[in-house]
Structure formats: structure tokens, C-alpha cells
Amino acid sequence: MEDLNAILSPGMLVRHPDQPDWGTGQVQSNIGGRVTVNFRDEGKVVIDSARIALIPVFDG
Q: Which value, to the nearest 10 degrees, does the dihedral of the CA atoms of residues 45, 59, 49, 31 take?
């Protein structure tokens, strides 16, 4: 499976596909397949790109 998280860069907004209650998160870093995201309602979470494909948010 192609790693769609590879396009994510710091400052981009995303949602977690399995945790909609976390709200929108802002990408803090994307290094070596590990994406650190600061979610509005959950806080800072490190996502393993091999397991979770984050959903980019373009509507704010």
C-alpha cells in the first residue's frame, strides 16, 4: 500500500479515520513514517503511517 501520509507536512490539518471525536489535528512533524499530530480534543498523538492513513482537511 502506498503511504499517502508521505504528503503531509507541518501545519497541514488532518482527521483520524477511526477517531472522529478527536476533532481536527495539525501535523507537527512527519519523520520516518511517524506523523506527530496535535488534535484539538485529544492532544499530541504519534501516528504510525504503516497502520493509519490520516485524512487531509482542506475546509478548515
A: -70
Cell of 40: 484539538
pLDDT one-digit tens code per residue, 19-59 = 999 999 999 999 999 999 999 999 999 999 999 999 999 87
Dihedral (Cα; 19, 20, 21, 22), 10-degree rounding: 70
pLDDT at residue number 60: 54
Q: How far is CA 15 from CA 51, 57, in A?
A: 15, 7
Q: Centre a 10 Å sphere on the Cβ of residue 55 and count the other Cβ atoms it contains.
A: 13
User: pTM for the complete prediction?
Assistant: 0.89
59 phi-psi bin (left φ>0, alpha ψ -120 to 50, beta other): alpha
